[in-house]
Amino acid sequence: MTIQDTLRSLELPALGERQAMLDLLEENVFGPVPAAVPVRAERLALWSDACAGKAAHEQLLLHLALPDGDFAFPLHLVTPYAPAKALLLHLSFDPEMPNQYCLAEEIVDHGYAICQLCYTQVTSDDQDGENGLAAHFIGQDFAGRKTSKISLWAFAASRVIDYLKTLEPLKNLPVVLIGHSRLGKTALWCSANDPRVDVCYANESGCTGAALSRGKQGETVADIYRVFPHWFVPAYERYAGREASMPFDQHFLLALTAPRPLYCASAIEDLWAWPKNEFLGLCAASPAFDRGFAFSPEEELPSFETPFSRQEGGVGYHLRAGAHFLSREDYNRFYPWLERRLGL
Predict the structure, then answer these.
(1) pLDDT band for position 143 (cuts 50, 70, 90)
(2) How many whole angstroms separate alpha carbon 344 and alpha carbon 341?
(3) CA–centroid distance for 287 within its chain
C-alpha cells in the first residue's frame, strides 16, 4: 500500500486552523500550560574546567514566583568556551549530568551549549498532586479546565527558556528542545505552546506523542491512560478504545510546531511506540510545514524492518536498529539535519 493510501484509510481529520487544533488538544488531552511567571536563578556550584576544560558547568536552582509562593527546581547548564552554534534544552530522566541520555562532552564537541532539566525534580511522575509544582496547579481551574503533569513539565521547560534568554552569550542562540519517550510528548506539547522553541526533537514519543492513534498497534489510548492517567486530563479517557471517534489525532500535535523545524525518530524494536505510526504522523502533519515530507502517489510505505531516514526538509525522521532509548546514534543522525535547518 502507498503512503497516501494508508493515510486515506486511516480517515484522519483534516489539519485545521492552529488555535482550533491547540484548543482540541488542551481540552481533550493535556490541559492548559499555566501562564508565565517571573524567574530568577541561584548558582549552587560551578566547575570551570568541565568537559576536559572546554566548558563551564553550572548547577543552578531556578526559582519561580508563583501566585501562591516560591517554587524552585535544579538545572544543569554547560556552556562551551568556544562560540556555541545552538543551545540544546534536554528534558531528562536523570538528575545527574552527564548521564546515559546526555553525553555532555560530546555535545560540547559538536559545538552546542546544553541545559538539562530533570522532570521528576519539577513534580513526580505519578498521581500524587501534592508534591512539587503539582501542589501549586493540579486541581486548579484554568477557565474551567484542569491541567496535567505533561503540561506542568512543559511549563517548567518554558520557564527555563525564560531564564536562558537573559544570559550572554546564550540568549540569541536557537533553542533546540529534546525529549525522549514521555519527555518527547512533553517536548512536542511545549513546542506547540512556546514559539521560542526554534527546533523540536521528539525521540520515540509513541502513543500520544508522534504516533497516530488511529490504526496503531502496541500501546493504545486505553493502555496509556490506564497506567499514566496523570499525564493527561480526564477527558482523554473517553477515547480509550474509540480512537476513530477522536476529532483530532497526533498529526495535530506535530503540526503545531510548524513552520519551525521538527524532527522525530524511532527504533525498529520499539513496537510499543510503533514506528510505522510515528512516521505516518509526520507524513500526515507535513502539509503544515513549508518543507514537509514529499512523497509521490506511488511511493510505498517502508518495511520498518531496516533503518532508513528522511532528512531533506523542514521535517526530519530516522528509524534506527535497536530498542527504546535516546542513543549516541540518535544524536549523530540528528546533528547534520539540525545544522542544515539552522544554516550552520
Answers:
(1) low
(2) 8
(3) 20
Q: pLDDT, tens digit, for every residue of 192-216? A: 999 999 999 999 999 999 999 999 9
What does the alpha-carbon distance between residue 193 and residue 158 come to, in Å, rounded to a whole number?
9
State which amino acid sits at residue 275: P
CB 102 within 8 A of CB 116: yes
φ, ψ for residue 231, nearest 5 deg: -75, -15
Task: Read off the pLDDT of residues 62-86 as tens digits, 9 standing for 90 and up.
Answer: 999 999 999 999 999 999 999 999 9
The C-alpha atoms of residue 243 and residue 283 are separated, in whole angstroms, by: 19
How far apart, in whole angstroms, are the C-alpha atoms of residue 87 and residue 343?
A: 15
Q: Among 156, 189, 162, which Cα is nearest to 175's?
A: 162
Which of 92, 148, 151, 181 is an active site residue? 181
- Report the mean per-residue pLDDT for the chain: 96
- Burial label for 146, CB within 10 Å (0-12, 13-18, 19+), is middle
Q: What is the CA radius of gyration of the chain?
A: 19
Contact 266, 279 (CB under 8 A): yes
In which residue are the cell numbers 503533569 written? 149
The three-point CA angle 228-225-100 to 5° equals 40
Instruction: Provide the β-strand partners of residue 315.
Output: 262
Let me know if 181 is a catalytic residue: yes
Tell me the C-alpha distance between 344 and 336, whole Å: 9
By C-alpha distance, which of 340, 343, 342 is closest to 309?
340
- Amino acid, single-letter form, for residue 30: F
Q: Which residue has the cell 502507498?
A: 2
- Per the confidence metrics, is the pTM higher than 0.85? yes
324 noted as active-site residue: yes
For the chain, list the domains and their CATH numbers: 3-341 (3.40.50.1820)
